[in-house]
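User: Before I run my own analysis I want an independent prediction to cross-check against. Here's the chain; please return only the structure tokens and, at the end, one sentence I can use as a sanity check.
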Amino acid sequence: MEWGTFNTLFAGLRVEATIQHIRRLRDHKNAEDDKKLLAALIQLGHVNKARNFLLHYNVQFDDFNTAAGSVSDKIKAVPGKAKSLDVSPEVIWDLAVDSQRIQRQLFASTMRLARPQVPVAFIEHLEISLQEPWCFKGQIKPTKD
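Assistant: Structure tokens:
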């Protein structure tokens, strides 16, 4: 598949829709399960949820010296259903590192699926950094009201 076709298929899609499109494309091509890609898509969902939380809600700083705080949706949430995410410079760094790793895995998996003539050694080189555990482990968790 040509790059222009990929751009046409995925341009303007939200992350959740893009993940579903990638899975359907792999199913259509009868591609074998790619555990690294599936792990990257799961992590992309976590990173995207954290990104949306940071973008749409205000950070309440607990400590201005360390820039640590939390983000909560309790203003708009149904009572008893509020959620929060702990944030710090380290969390932002972890999100950025994982985003780059996800991008490399998506590129490697796309090359494997759409460009079978690309040498396997090149694709494996891209995947080397993906052997480490994910950096972002933060969870959006229920908030005590």
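Sanity check: The mean pLDDT is 79.
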